[in-house]
Amino acid sequence: QVQLVESGGGPVQAGDSLRLSCTASGRDFYYYAMVWFRQAPGKEREFLAAINWSGRSSFFADSVKGRFTISKDDAKNTVYLQINTLIPEDTAVYYCALRRATWSVRPAEYEYWGQGTQVTVSS
């Protein structure tokens, strides 16, 4: 079974930066799209960023474009989400997801999810 493990979250101050990691295991992920979502208290899961299997193409939600970057390291089976200039509104549980297809902004289209990593931004 595929397992995704997020890490890198924690309590931070506004203006700081974080790099979240998601390490995947259990399958060959050569053709998988890798995606980040987040879910703030009382809100639905929000698409953040996606990267294709090659790592050469990426897409960002309008709400985070310019502050967030996505990358991956195939040797480590890991996808990263760099979050710059954190603001309190970034407080959420951040999830990674995988899909053996082109990326999608719709959470229901992803079969594999991590457990999430909490990011808490204080002002």
Mean pLDDT: 94
- What would you call the quaternary organization? single chain
Summed up, the helix count is 0
The radius of gyration over CA amounts to: 13 Å
What is the rounded distance between the termini?
40 Å
The percent of residues in helical segments reads under 10%
Q: Spans with pLDDT under 50 lasting ≥5 residues?
A: none
In percent terms, what proportion of residues is strand? over 45%
Structure, described:
By secondary structure, the chain is mostly beta strands. It contains no helices and 11 strands. Strands 2, 4, 5, 6, 9, 10 and 11 form a 7-stranded mixed β-sheet that branches. A 4-stranded antiparallel β-sheet has the order 1-3-8-7, with no helix packed on it. It is globular, with a radius of gyration of 13 Å.
